[in-house]
Write a structure and sequence with these properties.
This protein is α+β, with helices and mostly antiparallel strands. Helices cover 49% and strands 19% of the residues. The N terminus is likely disordered. It starts with a helix and ends with a strand.
């Protein structure tokens, strides 16, 4: 049976185990938080792009979707049907779950 002193010696020998930094500390926690945020943004971009691709009214457009964070996205590119195509792309994107706002940097021919 191990005594409390033996366990304390083991903990010190292995770096304490519970010290800040040993299991990821603040810097690693912030890094993990940032990586998770970036993954959520990429997921939102993919879901909006998939929605635009799945809708027959916007499928033919070559539009780029960029997440700005916190549910905000920007759609860029040139829609095939000018202003009507732009409005349709904005409408389709705004219906994707997780999208809070949609901005356009689309150019018209």
């Amino acid at each position: 049976m191990l005594s409390v002193t033996s366990l304390a010696a083991c903990a010190v020998g292995y770096g304490g185990g519970y010290q800040e930094g040993y299991y990821g500390g603040r810097d690693h926690a912030q890094e993990r938080h940032e990586l998770a945020r970036q993954a959520r943004e990429r997921d939102l971009e993919r879901r909006v792009s998939a929605a635009l691709e799945a809708d027959p009214r916007t499928k033919i457009y070559s539009l780029k979707v960029t997440s700005q964070g916190d549910g905000a996205i920007v759609i860029s590119g040139t829609p095939a049907n000018g202003f009507i195509g732009r409005d349709m792309a904005l409408r389709v994107a705004s219906r994707v779950p997780g999208v809070r706002s949609v901005a356009s940097s689309m150019t018209m021919d």
